[in-house]
Amino acid sequence: MAFMDWKDSFSVNVIKFDVQHKKLVGLVNELHAAMSAGQGKDVMSRVLSELIKYTSKHFSDEEDAMLKFGYPDFKAHKAEHVKLTDEVLKFQKQFEGGEKNISIDVMSFLNNWLKNHIMASDKKYSEFFKGKIV
Hints:
Layout: H1 15-36, H2 41-69, H3 74-96, H4 103-128
Helix pairs in contact: 1-2, 1-4, 2-3, 3-4
């Protein structure tokens, strides 16, 4: 059973971003599976790094589209992206520094943040991007 299931209610009605969100959910599930299976630090480090890299690409894509079309809430949305990136990089540094008790904190944070960010912040741009080719 997956740690986090994609639900149709998560859709922002922008195909590109929905595909990326599904990929992020998949990476969170992969990280959870690695942690649950007690896989080595190398496996978890690789998945966490991939999650960070893909999140960065996704944020860049969203922000580029927002700038291109003049999304009015761009600054606040970008600030949320910066906050998440900073938090995940902090978790990664702790993990790579040998801290073993962060896995539950990381998974809880990612699960809550991803759901809340998609359902609140990203849903706000859903109507704005309607009819635009992103």
